[in-house]
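Action item from last week, closing it out:
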Amino acid sequence: MTQALERQVAPQTSYDRDFLIWVEETIAHLQSGDIKNLDVANLIEEIDSLGKAQKSAFKCQVRALIEHIMKRCYVDMPLEYNGWERTIRNIRPEIEDLIEISPTLQNDYFKVLDTVYQQCLKKLQPEYKDAKFPDQWQFTRSIHDLLNVDFWEVMG
């Protein structure tokens, strides 16, 4: 019975044993045109995960940026303004770098803006009970403006 179970278990590939070796082997197969020996299933999985990771990183940075813009615009804590503005200045180039590598991420901004804003709202409302956050993003929906406009200056 044990032999029957052993035969049913798929043999371990280099992907299972040592990811770095698998990467090096995959690169070598691709460079030499040895498509026949590619581990296609795992290659597809890894390429798919790369795209998902970029989208996730973009969404995470947009969320952090919007959170700090919200705090700077709606939370009356002047001693914190400089820190929030510094964080905003630090996040913006991170988003620009992601867009430079993958310009189509700009399209994701429109898809995630409302969700991200609601996530920020859910996080910030209990933390800053006296702040009056709007129910929806009140500013332009332009990614260019998000990355360049200091919204707290145009509010007042």
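Closing note: The helical segments are 2-8, 14-17, 19-32, 40-74, 78-101, 105-127, 143-148, 151-155.
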